[in-house]
User: Fold this.
Amino acid sequence: MRDILTSYFWSGDAIRSRGVSDIVLTGTVDVPVPSARLLADWEREIATRLVLEPGDVEELPLARARARWPDYKRCVQAASDWTRALGLPEVLASSDVALMACRGAKYHHDGAQYGGSAFCNLFMSEDKGLDLHFPSTGHRIPLTRGTAVIFDTGRPHGVIQRHSSGFSAADFAPDQDWTQIFLTWELPIEDAHVGHALGITLDTSPSTALQLDEEQVRLNGARVIVCPDSGRWVQAD
Assistant:
């Protein structure tokens, strides 16, 4: 029997249901190297304010970065050209964008906060020997400057060492730079182009959706969370 994974997400004032895609779209786009001044600003912000522990993913101030980032528009244009080529016209222009930093990432899903979205990530850091890993689908994407990825927020993922089969904090020694900086856009799942690109089926479990009052992911009807070390689904308490 095939496992049935369902994301329940807010649509206006109601919870709606949908399938969870196992499609991961990836490519590499040409983005300029961030300036030394911008990189130093990011490093200072991460060290003094975020204080990233291994596995943490936190937001950086985008407005401040844009004031020091003359090539920001070029980066956005490169991502827009890539998404347009995938059949997603103008979707980035109407989507919320944030600047993020991670020091690896424990396995997680984002369907409890962003169930109505897919993520489009554009990585700005150089190759530091880290991969974006989707354990349930087998996708493993080396992270380099210009790596672009679109995926379902309900799909477990993490950022791990290239030689590793799972997440371990011990892999991220404090004397080495493991930080990845990336732009992320929230693409609306209900947009027909986004749904088509990821093969999303909407309203797969409307009767259950009517009974819920918060976003969540369920596997074969049971609410689930993700093991942070392995990426496997485990039943929620």
User: Anything to note?
Assistant: The first strand starts at residue 5 and ends at 11. Residues 133 and 206 are 31 Å apart (CA to CA). The helical segments are 36-50, 62-67, 72-85, 192-198, 206-210.
